[in-house]
Amino acid sequence: EAAVTQSPRNKVAVTGGKVTLSCNQTNNHNNMYWYRQDTGHGLRLIHYSYGAGSTEKGDIPDGYKASRPSQENFSLILELATPSQTSVYFCASGGLGVNYAEQFFGPGTRLTVL
Amino acid sequence: GEQVEQRPPHLSVPEGDSAVIICTYTDSATAYFYWYKQEPGAGLQLLMSVFSNVDRKEEQGLTVLLNKKDKQLSLNLTAAHPGDSAVYFCAVSGTNAYKVIFGKGTHLHVLP
User: Fold this and answer.
1) 3-state class of A30 per DSSP?
2) CA closest to B88 among chain A residues
3) How many CB pairs lie under 8 A apart between chains A and B?
4) By three-state DSSP, how is residue A97 classified?
5) Strand order from edge to edge, sheet including B4-7
6) In the 3-class helix/strand/coil scheme, how is A38-49 assigned residue by residue?
7) Sign of the dihedral through C-alpha B56, B45, A34, A1
């Protein structure tokens, strides 16, 4: 049974629209992360959280907000989507015991902004 | 800040041969090292974790070598098979566990 799930798996949005990507984890991990993956850039960290109620900026936070209402859920919000935000987005969880830096990834969300 | 270079970006090997992927990092304080596998349309799957006090780790046909002197991490897939075809990523982390730096990936193609 998948421990990190993302919804939707595919999304087409219009420029200027609001997009919310959702992530749920059943690993009981404290930390959660949002990345985007683009050809030539690899994985880039957008936001992360180390527990319910916390959100922190990653390396490329501009144009994105994050929300962590509970241990299990972490959302990425694009208030005004732009074509440059077309990408594949991955959520990950981690932070348990000695292997606290290991991260476990969801299947990804392919977002296209027209 | 920490930088990770991964090579080669593309690798094709015949079935049964070994495949070697190398990552070079810059920060000598790096403490944690990872290898991930990504199959088409899927997320990254953690293959192996190595801590800085380990020079060599073997699991299920995979060998990870850590050369701290040269700041180099390698993944060796022995006797590769077509099911190993995927994109492989190295990743490193220092004392700040939230900051994991990924390499840009290696597309491995194992020829049947």
Assistant:
1) coil
2) A42
3) 52
4) helix
5) B4-7, B19-25, B72-77, B62-67, B56-59
6) ECCCEEEEEEEE
7) negative
- Residues B88-108: tens digit of each pLDDT: 999 998 766 667 889 999 999
Q: Do A99 and B49 touch (CB under 8 A)?
A: yes
Interface test mutation site (partner B, options A89, A102, A104, max chain B beta carbons within 10 A): A102
Residues A84-105 have a mean pLDDT of 85
Give residue-wise pLDDT tens across range A70-79: 999 999 999 9
Q: Is the pLDDT reported for residue B74 higher than 90?
A: yes
Question: B29: pLDDT confidence band, cut at 50, 70 and 90?
Answer: confident
* DSSP designation for B103: P
Extract the tokens encoding A57: 């900026």
User: B90: how many CB neighbours lie within 10 A of its CB?
Assistant: 26
Burial of A45 from C-beta contacts in 10 A (0-12 / 13-18 / 19+): buried
Task: Give the nearest chain B residue to A39 (CA atoms).
Answer: B104
Between CA A41 and CA A38 the distance in angstroms is 5
Please give the C-alpha separations between residue A55 and each of A73, B16, B53, B79, in angstroms, as whole numbers: 12, 46, 32, 44
